[in-house]
Amino acid sequence: MKRKLKDIVFPKGSAIRKFLVNLKQNGIRDTLSKIRSYDIKGKSDNQKAYQQWILENEPDKDILEKQRAETFPRMPKISIIVPLYNTNKKYFKELLNSILNQTYANWELCLADGSLDKNLEIEEIAKKDNRIHYKFIGNNLGIARNSNTAIEMATGEYIGLLDHDDLLTDFALSEVVKQINKTPDAKLIYSDEDKISENSQERFDPHFKPDFAIDTLRSVNYICHFAVIESEILKEVEGFREGFDGAQDYDLFLRIAEKTNKIVHIPKILYHWRIHDGSTASAKKDTKPYAYEAGKKALENHLERIGLNGIVEHGELLGTYKITYEVIGNPKISILIPNKDHIKDLKQCIESILKHTTYINYEILIIENNSTEKATFSYYEEIQKNEKIKVISYPEKEFNYAKIMNYAVSNVDSEYILQLNNDTEVLTPNWLEQFLGYGQRNDVGAVGAKLYFPDNTIQHAGIIVGIKGTAGHILRNFPKSKKAYFGRQGYVQNFSSVTGACLFAKKSIYEEVGGMDEDFAVAFNDIDLCLKIRQKGYWIVWSPYIELYHFESKSRGYETTTSKVERFEKETKMFKEKWKEFLKNGDPFFNINFSLESENYQIKCKNYGG
Length: 610
Prior knowledge:
This protein is α/β, with parallel strands linked by helices. It is built from 19 helices and 23 strands.
């Protein structure tokens, strides 16, 4: 008798079972897409690259031995605090070994046990090593109070946060102390991290993080592990707060960020976050749902303390948050659209604005740039019957986008400017309110949107300076419906630049930085503008909640004629020269462990792609 496929029981975790489950849940199209990016063992390209990255980047035994003998001008004591509660003995033994194996020796381990029964084994271990301190609380006070109890035991200049089922790399404290000597005024230091399997045999899912970014932090607790905090500032903010269990570290990081910007990132994997059924690392929807509510509450409290009015909601991705900031007053916005003929594109753009926009106080300013078709001027006459639309003529013959935009900005009296390409289509009704919510903040210099190609792949989700030698749109051509690396297509983030195809800013910001650099006639003028804004200390914000189509061709380039090739090469050379220090140091919002040859967060290693 032949067995039917439905009657066959495939082993849990097998490739066939994964295939069938995915097929049932997500359909054939999604399943085939995953097959293209995964090998038969179920490991993604980035996961295979990560195993190679570990071999190429992490210290071997010889280097670790050299670290043990290494001295620094400043060798502070690091107090590692661990709240215990019914801790798995195997996990604790591995945790303890990860501390004992540290190549930097000036540490202490502070254990606060909220279990019902004293752990006599741990107590005995503590008696044999004066660096290990164990306190039996005898009652589970919650993770915040248990952690504070451990902090009270600490005598170090810095406090390291470690969960009772996780691990540190052997070189974690050495790297932290190295960073302290490099940036002695650092108040909070955090590292990259990965996950480790329940049996400790497999490392995977590396989280290579950006440098400190306040809007990214307000979207998700990306700082997470390994976090080391200066004792003084920890006292100043009064440690962990009760009522935020599950997101107590997120609440703490937000309060520290209110006090200082001396927050430093080490772009190395120093922490292994153990994944098991009861851990937040497992990222299951039914795992610790209270943690996500506590995170929302922490963010609401944070906004209230700093005087920002906004509604906090859970983001589309688990563990992320969306803030809708209150619009203050009714400021005027000028939407600036350069145009030369291409009336079909312009009409679609304008109609989408008029149809969808819910904000009232705006104008559309068309900057006419040497059109030749009679139909163009007929259309101009027609649309100017709408009191919101005005057409002005740019007086020069030669095309120079930067000059055109500077000319337009000088011809408006609005408080806010929105640069917009004529080949875009607005999809989000409250787009201007969202732009204003961020743009009205005193610390924000420019705001960008999420743009799609007509085939619903991403055209713009922020710009990384340094990609392909100059700059590139991250996640270009990535499917709209897919989850990118750590969900980075789906929450508000800070970048060094956003595209001028849809760029929002105060008019005063343009004036403060001297407008667009007119030497960049076609290429890099928007990136140059954003970098000048960053130099002034402002944040550049990108929001995935402001969506537009951008009908720019995927194959579009500047090199269509000899003169355009020469101009592009000239502007490329000029950009590299003007921003050579920035390019040398690297984009702070793009981890150095990603390849600059990829626009899709591809892990960089010599012997595996990138």
